[in-house]
């Protein structure tokens, strides 16, 4: 039969609502090696550039951009280049923001990383400018930025319904085993 462990450990019930709430939360997708590919070994002057962004889809707020700078002949990563991101909403070049990408802003030391603030939804243009010993290179990609993410009513309602069902089951179980 089912053991009466909750009576031995009365506070164990506090764990169940927490687990139900955590189970009801959405899980965001995280891509390997920096996120969603935006540039893949694109020729930019004497370099090849690859770029990734997170989250996917891009939303108003913080966007993480990772860039790989490679030598086209060896496909080796170049670690001593100067990498800048020029970011602006499409059609609003006057709102241009320049951000330095560095190795210290992310977890992969072979990539250049930068965090960009996207202030509004709509189309955005990100231009990657690279300067190093071999010269300069430029490549661009566009993003369709979506509104900020919100905790959906379905997830919130599902978590609440799960807690309600758990409380009903706990009440039924205790009454059944006390008599």
List strands and helices in order, with pairings.
Elements (H helix, E strand, L loop, with lengths): L4 H4 L6 H10 L11 E9 L2 E8 L6 E10 L11 E8 L7 E5 L10 E7 L3 E11 L2 E11 L7 H26 L1
Antiparallel strand pairs: 1-2, 2-3, 3-6, 4-5, 4-7, 7-8
Features:
Immunoglobulin-like, four-stranded antiparallel sheet, alpha+beta, elongated, 179 residues
Task: Strand order, main sheet: write it out.
Answer: 1-2-3-6
- Pairing-aware structural class of the strands and helices? alpha+beta
Determine the oligomeric state from the structure: single chain
Query: Based on the structure given, which CATH architecture of the largest domain is correct?
Result: Sandwich
User: What is the CA-based Rg, rounded?
Assistant: 25 Å
Share of helical residues: 10-25%
CATH superfamily heading of the largest domain: Macroglobulin (MG2) domain
Any idea of the CATH class of the largest domain? Mainly Beta
Quick one: overall form?
elongated
CATH topology call of the largest domain: Immunoglobulin-like
Percentage of residues in strands: 35-45%
CA-to-CA gap between the ends? Answer: 15 Å
Compressed to H and E, one letter per element, the order equals: HHEEEEEEEEH
Sheet with the most strands? 4 strands, antiparallel
Tally of individual domains:
2
**What's the tally of helices?**
3
The residue-averaged pLDDT reads 82
